[in-house]
Design brief:
- The structure is a single chain.
- It is built from two helices and 17 strands.
- By secondary structure, it is mainly β.
- It has a five-stranded mixed sheet with strand order 1-17-16-10-13, with no helix packed on it. A four-stranded mixed sheet has the order 5-2-8-9.
- A hairpin with a 2-residue loop joins strand 11 and strand 12.
Length: 237
């Protein structure tokens, strides 16, 4: 069976994780379609639903990870999955109930993200195609995108990253944009909520900025509206 990193462009390097071990774990589960061999893609999963502290993700009824996801937790790397038109389901692991379902046609050697969003009993999975292999290394530059996961479907906030500013409705996911590496200001602002954070971006690294939280819980240090970010990977020349 081919290893995931052998199939993807050499210009992109994962954040340091043991991909061989991850792939072996996926192939050793007692799940129907994990006994086959074939092309693979990479999927990164995020739990951005404030009221869901223990979430599992499945793909075509197979668990994506051996671990569950607390609120604002993510898979840490792109996990290997088989390609094709597949169902991605998020589950409340404490009760076993399904939170949201989405479908996506996953292509060989491509990268994807699934974000669980929701509050007050309404949840959805947002699946994106992450165009990492199209990003080019450049001196003094980094790549960044954002998702507005702040639990307020009625607001149309303004998102600021570096010098850029744009409106972003709930559930919006931007494309990756090139910005100057170093200290970068980020923020999200509406009539209902507002927060800012300066983050440091390293040269030729790829980031996702997560605007998260529940505007109705400003005194809760975990669930209040805030800015988080993760590193998707590193581009090599």
């Amino acid at each position: 069976m081919k290893k995931l990193f052998e199939l993807f462009s050499a210009r992109f390097v994962f954040v340091p994780f043991l991909l061989v071990m991850l792939f072996a774990a996926a192939c050793n589960k007692n799940d129907n379609d994990n006994n086959q061999q074939g092309p693979v893609a990479g999927l990164m999963a995020f739990n951005l639903a404030p009221g869901q502290p223990n979430v599992a993700f499945t793909i075509s009824n197979n668990y994506l990870s051996n671990s569950t996801f607390g609120y604002t937790n993510y898979s840490g790397s792109y996990l290997p999955i088989y390609v094709g038109d597949r169902e991605v389901r998020s589950i409340d692991y404490n009760t076993g109930s399904t939170l949201a379902i989405a479908r996506k046609a996953f292509a060989d050697s491509n990268y994807y993200s699934v974000f669980l969003l929701g509050y007050n009993g309404g949840y959805k999975n947002i699946i994106t195609t992450d165009t990492l292999t199209t990003l080019a290394a450049a001196p003094g530059k980094a790549w960044v995108r954002y998702i507005n996961a702040v639990a307020d479907s009625t607001a149309t906030p303004t998102v600021n990253i570096a010098e850029g500013s744009e409106t972003a409705v709930y559930g919006s996911v931007s494309g990756f944009k090139q910005v100057n590496a170093g200290s970068v200001s980020t923020g999200i602002n509406s009539t209902a909520f507002s927060t800012t954070r300066d983050i440091t971006l390293e040269e030729n690294k790829i980031y996702t900025v997560l605007f998260v939280g529940d505007p109705g819980m400003p005194s809760d240090e975990i669930k209040k509206v805030q800015v988080k970010f993760i590193t998707n990977g590193t581009i090599t020349p």
